[in-house]
UniProtKB/TrEMBL annotation:
Residues 41-64 are annotated as: Disordered. Residues 115-488 form the Aromatic amino acid beta-eliminating lyase/threonine aldolase domain. This is Aromatic amino acid beta-eliminating lyase/threonine aldolase domain-containing protein. Residues 55-64 have a biased composition (Polar residues). GO terms for biological process: amino acid metabolic process. It comes from Coccomyxa viridis.
Amino acid sequence: MMWQHRVQAAFGSDIGSFTRSMPPLCVPKAVHSNSSITAERRNGHHHEQNGSHKPISTGTGTQQYTRTPVSTIIEPFRVKVVEPLHRTTYQERQHLLEPADFNLFKLRAEDVLIDFLTDSGTGAMSTGQWSGIMRGDESYAGAQSWFRFQAAVRDLTGFEHVLPTHQGRGAERILFSGLDVAGKRIIANTHFDTTRANGEFLGGSCIDIPKRTLATEDLPFKGNMDLERLRQLLAEGEPVACVIMTITNNSGGGQPVSLQNIQEVSEICKRNGVPFILDACRFAENAYFIKTREQGHSHRSVKSIAQEMFALADGATFSAKKDGLANIGGFLLVRDPDLVESCRQNLILTEGYITYGGLAGRDLDAIAVGLEEVVDESYLEYRIASTRFLGQGLADAGIPVLWPPGGHAIYINASAFLPHIPAEAFPGHAVACAFYLEGGVRSCEIGSLMFGGKDPLAVDGGERKANLELCRLAIPRRVYTQSHIEYVLEIAQIVAAQKDTLRGFKIVQQPRFLRHFSASLAPTHSSANGAH
């Protein structure tokens, strides 16, 4: 079959495709991890997964033979609850998109067949997490759920001071308020949208300094920070509120950051007396890439690598909706005692008491379990491989993607795919709309629509442009199966066949901050071939 050849091309002979575990018209709502098989595989004892010489008994004695390793990577769970999907026709989707102002965020979820808009809070929880939900303690203060949550976070991160928040952006706002970022620089490998918006809303100046690489370069750690540029900025003498390392680098194509780069940035910050903060939303995926790509770490557990990353930081913001494997929640980690006290007061004012932070006790328990499950290496192996499978399939369909694939999403290089659409007409959004119209697949522009706006440095008041014009297909965790991915790849072939006819978009109305969430758009009048 076509998908078998594609996987072999993507992963080589040692990694295969995934078995289809369910029909394409349902998605799992809860999953059950096979912990016994997971443990055996992790310890190298699972007899179906190793390539050692194994004796087998025959009628006349014992025969030795070489076992062939099983190369198929399967979902390390089985489906327990399913949710029906609703199909729409092309004509129906046309009529749905216009009233939504051509903004995919405004669509009703029931009118989306495959939802790759985001991986944030959209995953399926395990039976262990649902068990945690049922034992949630909803006491206002000092609930048992809080202490289980706190213990899980401390065990993973080593931070004593843990402040729960309703999600990651709550942690960002509280941190930036405590750091008093007004009039100061906030430096990052790349800020994500809410991080930048929170910083700028509070008067900070956000500066991105990713290590520059070509979109097609097959390098292991393209999320790294530019160390020389960091030294230059710190030497200029302007006040710097903090330096943020986003792991993985979401706006930079979901690319991982090497442990060496994290260590070097941490040391530079210490020498300059600047707080070093992790945006740790996808810490487990980043740690897995360090284990599999960075020399000297292949023998280590993902958890130990994650613990070292956190140990290098002065603080961290975290959305539990990503690598917390939960549907809501987050936390803020801080070492400085004075900053902790300031952040606690802000937390009580805006999120809730310090032992729940705007979350129900049941959510605290779900996150506590998720933080243990997310560092399971059989899960991460499946997660990274399934993402790469999607990326290889898009490339085979003639759609340029950022390479190598990251952990949580595939990023289509929209400016390369649609060179006839300029940045100010949002080629990434054109790709996203085409995927929805052709197959009901919802994705997200990450480019000048998300990160643009009026450029304060432009004499003519023109638009600020993003470094890259991308369309992101973010894969929810433990939700879709192999056949869902194959369906998306079939839609990709349809989109690729008509790329020259796709049109750009213009903004009709927009808010001041985070405009991509609620802006109203309209198609431009002409495509590359002059059609109207």
